[in-house]
Amino acid sequence: MFDIGWSEILLIVIVAVVVIGPRELPAALRTAGRWIGQMRRVSNHFRAGVDAMIREAEMEEMEKKWAEQNARIMAEHPNADLGEHEMTSLPDQKAEELGPENLASAAEGKPKPTASDKPENLLPEKKSGNEPELPLG
Q: Is the distance from CB of 49 to CB of 41 less than 8 angstroms?
């Protein structure tokens, strides 16, 4: 950002040691670090506020665009039949009872998985022999 090389940093350190003195230099560096940290926090807070305003403006713009598209589509097709795209409820089960892993299978009409379908039950049977048994769980 500032394009400061090692020679410039060395010159600044030498001037700081001469002007401030070696005894007061650690306290001066701590104070400078606090100021820099506070400036970074303020700039990050400001940047986050600007980014939030930009996102809100973009969202409002997109919502207007979607509303216009929706109005245009509804005007073109006022009595459109949804046909096979019509939303239907799940068969004999509530979505809350199913959980995310079984929701797709219930929507397709597949049966709910049972305890015998668990991965632990699908392991191959143990072989007899000199092979050590590995813990799996």
A: no
DSSP, collapsed to helix, strand or coil, labels residue 54 as helix
Q: Are 111 and 128 in contact (CB under 8 A)?
A: no
Tens of pLDDT, residue by residue over 51-109, are 999 999 999 999 999 999 999 988 888 776 656 666 566 565 555 555 555 555 555 55
pTM score: 0.40
Beta strands in the chain (DSSP E): none
- pLDDT value of residue 59: 95
Enumerate residues 6+ apart whose C-beta is below 8 A from 136.
120, 123
Say which DSSP state 123 is in: S
Interatomic CA distance for residues 56 and 62, integer angstroms: 10
Q: Where are the alpha helices (DSSP H) in the chain?
A: 6-20, 25-76, 95-98, 100-107
Q: Which two tokens stand for residue 10?
A: 């060395």
Compute how many other C-beta atoms are within 10 angstroms of the C-beta atom of residue 25: 14
